[in-house]
Specification:
The protein is mainly α. The chain is built from three helices and no strands. It is elongated and about 50 Å long.
Length: 82
């Protein structure tokens, strides 16, 4: 099972957030040239951290078989949120 999607463009070596901007411009350019209708949907995830069930996240990390050391570090990072 893959944890990181192939389309994630940030926080990984050799992947850059500006790739998303380039992809957006290329898509718009393609739509104009091919006279295709195009709709973009931008979602604001700014408040998602307020809605995370930290206990659920910890259970998933444990179920996915991450090393106990990693599990413990994550738990320490979020202990005030739990």
């Amino acid at each position: 099972m893959e944890v990181i999607d192939a389309n994630q463009t940030t926080f990984l070596p050799l992947r850059y957030i500006l790739d998303n901007v380039l992809l957006t411009h290329e898509t718009i350019d393609w739509a104009k040239k091919s006279k295709q209708d195009l709709i973009f949907l931008k979602l604001d995830f700014a408040q998602t951290n307020d809605k995370v069930s930290w206990n659920f996240l910890l259970k998933i990390i444990d179920m996915m078989g991450f090393a106990k050391e990693f599990f413990t570090m994550v738990k320490l990072l979020f202990q005030d949120a739990i």
